[in-house]
Design goal:
Blueprint (H helix, E strand, L loop, with lengths): L2 H6 L9 H4 L21 H13 L4 E6 L1 H23 L5 H6 L4 E8 L11 E2 H22 L14 H10 L15 H10 L1
Parallel strand pairs: 1-2, 2-3
Helix pairs in contact: 3-4, 6-7
Length: about 200
């Protein structure tokens, strides 16, 4: 469950093996779970997470997420030595265990549907989000045609119009709104005229 699993520990931390990851590549979302974790935003929560990782001998993390997840990973990395010192001071781990786990390695991968990160062709999540949008468009297009109706489809992407733009192009949308290019005054009349044609 992401950072929630790190903080809670116990059965949330288990080794993946061939059987546990077989036949999941086609599944959407994340099969290992994900959760917003208020506790991890506090030092006390990160201290618990550090103890759980050290308990399992884990010193390498691969964090896939957005701004919050990657910011959390950077804070965790920067505090790691201090967290281990505190665990030793409180008698929760030995000095030997702290030395053995003294370095935390983190790889951060942008998991964003927005495809708004430079240096990569496509961020993790963009392709599956676009496929889901196109499935919906395909499903409602025949309904719109048979009823001679106009459908408005809102897609994800609060600050980034990539998904709206690409799915609009792919589906032949008549009108498109994206945050990067807000509509000009009088757009309502122009849109109605276009749809009327």
């Amino acid at each position: 469950q992401g950072y929630e699993g790190l903080v809670e520990g116990g059965d949330n931390i288990k080794q993946a093996n061939w059987l546990s990851v077989s036949n999941i590549i086609q599944l959407g979302g994340t099969v290992i779970g994900s959760a917003r974790c208020k506790a991890f935003t506090t030092r006390a929560g990160r201290l618990r997470a550090a103890r759980n990782l050290v308990e399992h001998g884990i010193t390498n993390l691969c964090v896939i997420g957005g701004d919050g997840s990657l910011t959390g990973a950077d804070i965790f990395r920067s505090e790691w030595a201090g967290l281990l010192e505190e665990l030793v001071r409180d008698g929760q781990i030995s000095e030997k265990v702290a030395r053995k786990n003294c370095r935390l390695n983190i790889v951060g991968l942008v998991g964003s549907i927005d495809n708004d990160f430079c240096g990569t062709d496509m961020t993790i999540g963009t392709d599956s989000a676009l496929h889901r949008i196109m499935e919906v468009v395909d499903a409602i297009t025949t309904t719109a045609q048979s009823h001679q109706r106009t459908f408005v489809l809102e897609v994800m992407g609060r600050h980034c119009g990539y998904l709206a733009l690409v799915s609009g192009l792919a589906s032949g949308a008549d009108w498109l709104f994206i945050p990067e290019s807000p509509p000009e005054d009088g757009w309502e009349d122009l849109m109605c005229e276009r749809l009327g044609e």
